[in-house]
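Weekly modeling sync, notes
Attendees: S.R. (lead), two postdocs, one rotation student

Agenda item 3: backlog of single-chain predictions. S.R. asked that every request posted to the team notebook include the full sequence so nobody has to chase files. The rotation student volunteered to paste the first one in as an example of the format we agreed on. Action items at the bottom.

Example entry:
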Amino acid sequence: MLKHTRFVGLGSITISIVVIVMKKYQISVLTAIIIMLCQSIALAQAVTVGNMILNKGGVKLRRNQIDTLYQTAGEIIPVRNLDEIQTGKDSSVTIKLNAKSDELELYSQSFFKIDNVTAQSSQLSMSIGKARFKIQKRRKPLKPRKRRKKRFRVRTANAIVGVKGTEFVLAAGTDVTSVLTLEGVVDVASVATPEIEVEVKENQASQIKLASTPTAPVTVPASVRENIVNTDAPNVFNNVQFGEAVPDTSVKPETKKKSSPAEKKEEAKSGRQEKSPRAGQTGTPGLVSPGAGGADVFETGNSDSEGIGGDDAINLENLDSAEIDDIDFEEPEIDIEDIFDPDDIIEGLVDTIDDLGEDIEEIQEEIVTDQLQEIEIKIKHQ
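Predicted structure, as returned to the notebook:
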């Protein structure tokens, strides 16, 4: 609440300053809007989104094209959006994000960037290197929602990794990306075909080479998993026997040939013939009628015929209320707490609110983008 109030105050001060400048220097409304948008973007980038802790070695932080080197173990460095991080040899850092308490450990000789971290989502990228991620599990919403972008995403040179709340190890090179899931589920897709995703479940691994689709997930033995977690270099995934790349289903199937009017008429006529009763049958198709060569399903007396009309038939005349009382009707065992769990309802409400926040943020981003495009068009025509 305090942060929100602070940003509202900054926004009010910014508007006041712009109004004063407009009056003094007679700046147009269009120019004032551009100034406000630029200041808003600058404020958003200046916000601290987490902290980086140097575990060992050295790390270089690039911010606004200025490089700063840190070499003191245990030092805490605030990080912001658009910060670029490069770890040195025999180095590692831990980055803790404020919004969802997500955490990641970045290993030696890795190039990492914080693209955009907000209260609703985190967008990161790693061009090369190895990292271990611990992402908080997302609560289940109250009702199913359409497919949307993941709350936490990491992009490499050739892959997109979407997270549903899990712990995983990611290694990236110039043309290969490898993923090992330690807990939960990770969605992996190629940048070339983002619509083709594979789910990498617990203790499974997948890999993407060049612009190919991800490999089918394979279970990794415990000894290999331990080696991947504890080894610094990204090439530790060379010990995994990956599966084959999943088929590329992005190619549209051949369009089905349309039937001519005459063919459609013939198909409809054929369908009506199949549904009509066979010769010798009356009543509803598919049911055996009395007197049509079959026995009655419900007999009114004893019958010597075999099958459903024989000894197994239900005798309506001899079936009295005493026999009905002897029939055992089992009551279904339903635990009302399993259906209406208060904790699940509360978690669902909280997650639904988070989803609404994401929707609002996406709409705001689209509005700002559209406004900037309109401003650019107006400037060109002035």
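Discussion: group reviewed the output briefly. The domain at 94-138+149-239 is CATH 2.60.120.1440 (Jelly Rolls).
Action items: rotation student to repeat for the remaining queue; S.R. to check formatting next week.
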